[in-house]
Amino acid sequence: MNLLDIRNLSVTYGTDTAAVRGVDLTVEAGRKLGIAGESGCGKSTLALALLRLLPASARLSGQILLDGEDVLTMKWGRLRAVRWAGASIVFQGAMHSLNAVHRIGDQIAEPLLVHRQATPPAARRRVGELLEHVGLPTARADAYPHELSGGQRQRVMIAMALACDPRLIVADEPTTALDVMIQAQILRLIEQLVSEQNIALVMISHDLAVLADTCDRLAVMYAGRIVEEGPARAVYDAAQHPYGRALSAAFPRIGDPASRRAPRGLPGDPPDPAALPSGCTFHPRCPVALEVCASEDPPLAEAAPGHRSACVLTTGSRP
Fold it and tell me: In this structure, what CATH number is given to the domain that contains residue 47?
């Protein structure tokens, strides 16, 4: 049974602004799913939707099944508990996510005191264990966020996410603004924790190369929709959708000097969710678009074993 099962999830603002459109994804316990795409493709909206952290103006439809229980129909009390004990999130930008006027230890202890009803001494012991687990000295519990480096703050965010032993962690751009060496440390830490504790991971990033090295499966998102999904290395090395190929080509590759000299980009920007183009939403930017692409939006269909794509050129699929 899948730990997380997303079925036809859509997020709409106002009357016609579709930030997420008909997403279907699954994650098993102990497995890692990466979601990639440019800024504005709906990745963070999807991440926040998984825990119902979007503003009240957002309308959600479909299902988000966590261990068979639908997050979208949970009562407030149950949802509040699930956000810590069932699933937790590592937000983008640790400095803005931590409370600047509270010590690190107090912030990690808060969910333990509230949700696990731990005694203060037990919570302090658990804080020390969590800090050691993410590679920080226990003395850092007395520090304020501004006294830590970017990598240390990110480790604190991971410690907070692990506080109540969740079954699922959603990591939204967990290595944003970190230098390359610190990024590698954080990614290794995440991989280690998922493996040791059998946690399911959904990791959001614009960096296809990072996701290909970290995750088991990879989904590519464009204009609120999943346009490609499959084994992580297969999506990175042999993308089936033109957008997936464009994302992959944007990163230099080891052993390929030509890619370092001239990494390829993609002209234009993702479309406005309130004014999506007709047909395939990628066709105005697609270098291989056909006439039919302007009028028909193909479904996500199998292009290779276990590898799906929403493109008539790779699957021959028609709506």
Answer: 3.40.50.300
- pTM of the full predicted structure? 0.90
> 146: closest CA among 102, 108, 178?
102
Tens digit of each residue's pLDDT, the chain (319 residues): 789 999 999 999 988 889 999 999 999 999 999 999 998 899 999 999 999 999 999 999 999 999 999 999 999 989 988 887 789 999 888 888 899 999 999 999 998 998 887 899 999 999 999 999 888 999 999 999 999 998 899 999 999 998 888 999 999 988 877 788 888 888 888 888 888 888 999 999 988 888 999 999 999 999 999 999 999 999 999 999 999 999 988 776 666 665 555 556 688 888 998 899 999 999 999 999 999 999 999 999 999 899 999 999 886 655 5
Q: What are phi and psi for residue 178, nearest 5 degrees?
A: -100, 150
Token digits of residue 259: 């890619």
Number of Cβ within a 10 Å radius of residue 242: 25
* Domain carrying residue 264: 4-315
**β-strands 4-13, 58-66: how paired?**
antiparallel
**How many domains does the chain fold into?**
1
Q: What is the DSSP letter of 163?
A: T
Q: Is 51 helix (H, G, I), strand (E, B) or coil?
A: coil
